[in-house]
Amino acid sequence: MAPVTTAGERMHALVERLYPLCRSITGDGVRATLDIVGEYVPLQVHEVPTGTRVLDWTVPQEWNIRDAYIADTTGRRVVDFAASSLHVLGYSVPVAATMPLSELRGHLHTLPDQPTWVPYRTSYYTPEWGFCLAQETLDAMPDGEYEVRIDSTLADGHLTYAEHVVPGQVAEEVIVSCHVCHPSLANDNLAGVAVAVLLAQELAQRSPYYTYRFIFAPGTIGAITWLARNAERVELVRHGLVLACAGDRGQLTYKQSRRGDAEIDRVLEHVLRTSERPHRVTEFTPYGYDERQYCSPGFDLGVGSLTRTPYAGYPEYHTSADNPDFVSPEAMADTLAVCREAFAVLDRNRQYLNLSPYGEPQLGRRGLYDSLGGRSDAKQAQLAMLWVLNLSDGEHSLLDVAERSGLPFDTVAAAADALHGAGLIKA
Amino acid sequence: MAPVTTAGERMHALVERLYPLCRSITGDGVRATLDIVGEYVPLQVHEVPTGTRVLDWTVPQEWNIRDAYIADTTGRRVVDFAASSLHVLGYSVPVAATMPLSELRGHLHTLPDQPTWVPYRTSYYTPEWGFCLAQETLDAMPDGEYEVRIDSTLADGHLTYAEHVVPGQVAEEVIVSCHVCHPSLANDNLAGVAVAVLLAQELAQRSPYYTYRFIFAPGTIGAITWLARNAERVELVRHGLVLACAGDRGQLTYKQSRRGDAEIDRVLEHVLRTSERPHRVTEFTPYGYDERQYCSPGFDLGVGSLTRTPYAGYPEYHTSADNPDFVSPEAMADTLAVCREAFAVLDRNRQYLNLSPYGEPQLGRRGLYDSLGGRSDAKQAQLAMLWVLNLSDGEHSLLDVAERSGLPFDTVAAAADALHGAGLIKA
Amino acid sequence: MAPVTTAGERMHALVERLYPLCRSITGDGVRATLDIVGEYVPLQVHEVPTGTRVLDWTVPQEWNIRDAYIADTTGRRVVDFAASSLHVLGYSVPVAATMPLSELRGHLHTLPDQPTWVPYRTSYYTPEWGFCLAQETLDAMPDGEYEVRIDSTLADGHLTYAEHVVPGQVAEEVIVSCHVCHPSLANDNLAGVAVAVLLAQELAQRSPYYTYRFIFAPGTIGAITWLARNAERVELVRHGLVLACAGDRGQLTYKQSRRGDAEIDRVLEHVLRTSERPHRVTEFTPYGYDERQYCSPGFDLGVGSLTRTPYAGYPEYHTSADNPDFVSPEAMADTLAVCREAFAVLDRNRQYLNLSPYGEPQLGRRGLYDSLGGRSDAKQAQLAMLWVLNLSDGEHSLLDVAERSGLPFDTVAAAADALHGAGLIKA
Question: What is the band of B96 on the pLDDT scale with cuts at 50, 70, 90?
């Protein structure tokens, strides 16, 4: 096997490794997933007991599954959990019975329009059992008796989630959140997990301004559990990003926070636009991933969501066709690059105050301006300094300057550094 | 005669019945009109004495007219008030004289560009007499002597207007205002009166949230009189609509209140847009109908105006061609339908407060959410609940939710009802 | 010579007269320029000593020059200051030397892409000497020894600027600012000076509402000096305009003040738009002319900039091709006309308060409204009165009324005069 060399390839390898595990909102599949993620970045794993009240919800019983199948009268397994974790309805109660197909049908889920694909279905909060299978599998099942068996356990236990923190220069935090509750689905959300892992590794290489907190938690109940247990920490969260569907070949989609004009919104839109990537920006909607919770009106955090093709926007969504082939190293590398660029802007974006606001300060005697006058081709670095000076009035950030001036953010930030070094502006 | 069955036909019949009466800003023509309207909906009729100060104005003398004509030397009436109330200049002082055509011409009003139409003209506040006639009638009048006679009375009396109230659950009011001062003109404003009458009948069939007050008053001086005599009631007026030109075959036009973003503006625009009717929305202008008074800067009420072709926007405007044939049952029924739909939205539009604003409340255990997870085709009713929960922060109304989400207002309102029933939101 | 008859011709004659003088940020060239301007409008000339601290800057030594040339070994002057003031680098220190071309080259400035044009270059704050010449002149210079001589003086002296004030009815001021530091360049900025001069003459013919202050000062350091010495007066500045590049044949460009919505911005945009001149409006940028100083964040004055082709926007910019032929009498007359129209609007723009805000006041009994009712062609004067009454709520100016109504500003202002005369509104 060739050595894994690129970031895209490393992320794809992680997706392939995590893919077979049967994750759910609780259980050993989540733990196994976090064990593997923990090989890449150190994790603090939290176990929250069944019955714990978390906001309006209660941590449910823990679900574990060992085996499940439908066998015909010959004992042949026509549907087998061992082949794909999708085959069993998530959170199925145990069953061991023999019944005619006519009775079994009420427990079978298929996609008639996509007869070769297996759907992903769950029943977390209503006791139920069931199987998911390809329509063509069902069509091939003759009437008659079938043995059905789900060797699962629903019992008091724990909900498991994990955090990884990259310490920053300040206590204010940026959260990056991924759901880890989906079983064998690659884009949704192993690709998001993989991008988050490499992003965390990269951030640790530099000393970021903000403290970056990566949250790997089951969807909905996991985010709600984190929010319930971190009431004080939430006060420190300044920005955040939910990563999901990070690996398909579609164009990037940034979904705004509920606020619509949070700094994270402006940063992502700036980076996507100025990088000239094809992309879409969509308004907040109260469905999708865990931005639903972070952006509930009581929290209303500045948390957006970055995906490629968004939630439910592709036929393979929540089916067996969302497999490792559906995600590409290049797409994940591109998603990672946008996160990297966006956090680089976010980390350097500040409001400065011009300490010499009456007229322009004389840049020339400070070595910041060309001595030769009259030329029409002023240098971008000089224009950037004039812009920073003019807009550093306590109401504009460097991102505002970049957007207003049309200059690259890096040029503007460098100009601010030069002016700050000369004592002309203060943070 | 076939039985009158549809709302449109009933309205058209009312227009035809009211058409011959000679209305003005005062006088028995207004009283006769209100008598007929009173057969449909009970009216409280007000008589305000001549000389009463109303805001910056004074109620003028009452004008009544019995006969008027121009007769040639043979005694033949070449212009006859009995044929059309338009023939006499509104508020003409009495005259009985014989004069040559050359002298008479100064008192004659025609439309040279529409030689077969009789114009509508008035001189309410400057003593004057005159006749309105078709240009072709004038052209056929030979030089010579004519007998002119206007048997009118200008004397102390009263200004007459009427109100009809549909009581609501709250004291806050919606006013619907129509001018009743125009003589034999069908679209302007008998069609508006007819739509208002049927709207009042319909509202009485349900128990509306707001109290709806219908005002039938002469234009300008009538609205000013109502405003002058209802200083305290004006404080209760939350919304309002001036109805005029409600029956021509043109598309609907909503003219915004002076505020431009009053709730009535947003409701009418929402209903017109989502119903996919061809329509126009125009900004407020300080001319047109009695929105001029309701939207004067001292009152600045949230009162818009609904017409089909607007004020002065059609050739037949203020001429004898604005006759019952010019208005159609279908157009009046359509105007009525928009009013009905708009008031249904207005009546249900509320701001709610999410009582569980931290994270999403668990809708599933309250029976408000599907137990089967994983499907991509979330139901509109569920999406609507998520939207209502997310935006019920004390700053958004259900109309805001409908507009932001793109969901039908009815779906949003039903979701709010369900959430309210579950104790998750409060009004 | 034919008599100078039009404003455009008078301005062009002034440009031609000022053109040969060698202006800089200090020195006798500025004084000679102001002497000539003073023949047209009385000036108050200020002399500010070298070393004076002005905001973040210090008034530099005064520069004067008598002669400068490069001569070949035969004594022939191949580059001669007497031929054009552009030939010497502005603020060149004195030099008298003989050197080979190879050494001289480091002091020569050309425009390789425009080989027949001489560039304009300066080195105000770094001691340097140099010559500007056409590339073709340089190409024709054989290697060998050259005599170089700059007979200049850099010594303690003064910075010179001037003001001309047209007294108004109120102490609040409008400033009109032109830079007078550029040597033989016609569009930049002798055309601006010429337009300012005629504008000042015209304003003196009427009694303007605002006090108009014309500032003729060297660029950057001159404006900074004026601001430093007029801290209290700045408090009185309500509006302002920087005039530059006022004579080229390109379309007009209005550059907004930093605020972007200052009254001067709205006035200029209104006049340019309603006059249907081809024009551009651009957002504020912190480079260009002395709007940089007036709009620095500490002052943030409502000062825009009017040019034809803007700063650095034409190939002839800062070259010998910006000569009197480059500017036209017609273009300068057009710039003057826009200033005249804009200041006429600015001077009459007020907020009024409707003293009869409840309902419409009865205009008819005050002789302000037609007595004949029913016509659809209401007169603009009457519509304007209704608009002024409706919007005179303490939040809208006459310009707001003109823009909202679409009526000409003059009609609106006349309506306000009539209503004011009738005691219906107050300023």
Answer: very high
- C57–A386: do the CB atoms touch at under 8 Å? no
What is the separation of C-alpha C260 from the centre of its chain, rounded to a whole number of angstroms? 18
Give the C-alpha separation, A265 to A284, whole Å: 10
Alpha helices in C246-324 (DSSP H): 263-274, 291-294
DSSP A257: P
Read off the pLDDT of each residue in B88-92 and give the average, rounded to a whole number: 97
Cα distances from A149 to residues A61, A65, A72, A423, in angstroms, run 20, 11, 12, 74
Contacts of A275 (CB under 8 A, 6+ apart): A338, A341
Residues listed for chain C: 427
Asked if residue B248 lies in contact with residue B326, where contact means CB atoms within 8 angstroms, the answer is yes
Quote the CA–CA distance of B282 and A330 in Å, as a whole number: 51
Prior bond of A189 cis (ω within 30°): yes
Task: Report the distance separating Cα C29 and Cα C18, nearest Å.
Answer: 10
* DSSP code per residue over B372-405: -B--S---HHHHHHHHHHHHTEEEEEHHHHHHHH
Residue C171 tokens, joined: 């102490």
Average pLDDT, chain B: 96
φ and ψ of B370, to 5 deg: -55, 140
For chain C, give the longest Cα–Cα distance.
94
A221-232 core/surface letters (b: 16 or more CB in 10 A; e: else): bbbbbbbbbbee
Q: How far is CA A52 from the centre of its chain?
A: 25
- Measured between CB atoms, which of C361, C373, C392 is closest to B121? C373
Closest C-alpha among B218, B274, B257, B211 to residue B402: B274
Beta strands in A187-336 (DSSP E): 211-217, 237-243, 252-255, 279-282, 303-307
CA–CA distance, C201 with C193 (Å, rounded to integer): 12
Comparing CA positions, the residue from B30, B133, B21 lying closest to residue B87 is B133
Question: In the β-sheet with C351-354, what is the strand arrangement from edge to edge?
Answer: C393-397, C351-354, C425-426
Instruction: From A11, A306, A265, select the one nearest A177 (Cα to Cα).
Output: A306
Token representation of residue C324: 């009197």
Averaged pLDDT score across all residues of chain A: 96
pLDDT in tens, A138-154: 999 999 999 999 999 99
Task: Say if the Cβ atoms of C121 and A372 lie within 8 Å.
Answer: yes
When scoring C356, C358, C387, C401 by the number of chain B Cβ atoms within 10 A, the one with the most, hence best to mutate, is C358
Q: What is the ipTM of this complex?
A: 0.95
A161-214 pLDDT, tens digit each: 999 999 999 999 999 999 999 999 999 999 999 999 999 999 999 899 999 999
Comparing alpha-carbon positions, the chain B residue that sits nearest to C406 is B285
Burial pattern C101-136, b for ≥16 Cβ within 10 A else e, equals: beebeebbbbbeebeebbbbbbbbbeebbbbbbbbe
Please answer whether residues C291 and C224 qualify as being in contact, where contact means their C-beta atoms are separated by less than 8 angstroms.
no
In whole angstroms, what is the distance from residue A271 CA to residue A279 CA? 11
Contact C178, C231 (CB under 8 A): no
> Closest Cα partner for C209 from C172, C249, C244, C180?
C172
Do residues C44 and C208 touch, judged by C-beta distance below 8 A? no
Please state at what angle helix C7-18 crosses helix C191-205, rounded to 10 degrees. Answer: 130
Nearest-angstrom CA–CA distance, B237 and B172: 6
Q: Cβ separation of C376 and B312 shorter than 8 Å?
A: yes
Q: Give the C-alpha separation, B50 to B27, whole Å.
A: 11
**For residues B138 and A212, what is the distance between their CA atoms, to the nearest angstrom?**
89
B90 vs C376: CB contact, 8 Å cut-off? no
